[in-house]
Amino acid sequence: MLPSLEKLQKDAWRTSSARYNAARRLRRRESFATVSFALMSALTCAIAFAQRVYAQPSSPADNYLSTVSASLGVVLLTLSLVEWGAKPGSIAEALHENAEKLNAYWRKVALKVASVQGGVTLTWSDVQTLADEYDILKAASRYNHEPVDDAYFRASHQSDFPGMPKLKQLLTWMRWQFSSIWYISALWIFLVLLGWPLSDKAMWKPSNVVTTGTSSAGAQAGNK
């Protein structure tokens, strides 16, 4: 009977911790997305200002900045709708609330385990009641944690869940840290790369100047 109670206690601890991790991960996603989208929106305004002040009309930079600004606006609108539909904040709140209930249940089972170790007798019916209560609490949430949340918990508690190699622990930690922000981070890297062509000075020269110079050179060659 005691091993069954201890397993039930460990399962409740594992599930509640995984859902705490999921709530933290989703809240990070929501915060990172909100800040990133706000900064990217400000960036579109900065691009328009730089285009008006520094880019000569009809220059490659003028056309390039117009394309980047318009494309970035469409991308931000699309991603904002995706994040709104994903509802990471609402899911995080639901998972955190369920984790709190599971944590309270874990403390309840821990007291039962201590009672049995102290000599109190429990029947199998009592154990089954506790098991049913765990199943009800676990299924009460509409949302579940992801496998990476459970893997991160196990990697952080190797004394209780041994067997994970050091390299896998590190990879699990990295995966959990970046799983919620990877695509927005990739967008930031892409935006930085978009600025690379502007380092070419030829981008800032009006196209008509290049055309005129080429035409003049051609005319002189013809006169000769």
Summarize the structure.
This protein has 224 residues and is mainly α. The chain has helices at residues 2-54, 60-86, 88-117, 124-139, 147-156, 166-178, 182-194, 207-223.
Summarize this structure as a short list of keywords or feature phrases.
224 residues, elongated, mainly alpha
Walk me through the structure:
This protein is mainly α and 224 residues long. The chain has one domain (2-118, 136-196). Helix content is 80%, strand content 0%. The chain is built from 8 helices and no strands. The chain has helices spanning 2-54, 60-86, 88-117, 124-139, 147-156, 166-178, 182-194, 207-223. The protein starts with a helix and ends with a helix.
Proportion in helices: over 70%
Q: How many β-strand runs?
A: 0
- Described by the principal axes of the CA atoms, the overall outline is elongated
Order of helices and strands: HHHHHHHH
Instruction: Please outline the major beta sheet.
Output: none
Counting helices, strands and paired strands, the structural category is: mainly alpha
Q: How many helical stretches?
A: 8
Proportion of residues in extended strands: under 5%
Low-confidence parts: 210-219
Roughly how many Å is the radius of gyration? 30 Å
Distance between the terminal alpha carbons, to the nearest Å? Answer: 106 Å
